[in-house]
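User: Could you check the structure of this?
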Amino acid sequence: MITTIRSAGFVTVQVIATLVLGVVCLPALASEVAVRRVAKLWLRVIAWDCWWVAGLRWRLTGEANIPSGPVIYAVKHQSSWETLILTLLLRQPAVVLKKELLSIPLFGTYLAKSGMIAVDREAGASALKKMVAEARQKIDEGRSVLIYPEGTRTQPGERRRYHPGVFALYRGLGVPVVPVALNSGLFWSKFTKKPGFVDVSFLPPVAEGMDRRSFLSGLEDTIETETRKLEDRVPTHF
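Assistant: Sure, the predicted structure tokens are below.
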């Protein structure tokens, strides 16, 4: 019952913050810099909401594995937690996301104006070329890039084939790829936010010069092995 009440409180704060900021800050849509400032403020409100209302907190390990300068974050995807809180913690990297998200009323407009990398998954090879070109612009601006190699959310314990988009970035951008494992799916579902600690593990960057098969299989094994370890930890609840 307490978890249900806290989850409802979290959603209430999230909806109010989204509507208020989304409407009040409409003039910011004229500038990417302004939109990113609005996004940062919004994400900070969501982080506060998550931490104090839902009681869902986080622990980061392996931050020393993140090289200085722009990188590619290859992140395990289990919930919306990493699309919100992790992007804030990583200083708003340019996220590779599906083009359909830009069609969400108002929210999609803010996404489009914030410098994200939208991919048309039906466009095949041309979509990969466009993604790499846009990602190169972000890297040249000093901004990191974040991609979910599975292409969609997975449930805890579930494993899916990693898609080649992350390899296209690895080969085309020439910057380190940092694998990121997490266990957010144990706490965050569509309707419920359980109190506890989301564990996030930043792993050593992938070696340079790997071929496609070795890169994808190695990245998948690295992230999935660490994810299983995090999932096996006994959650700490309040």
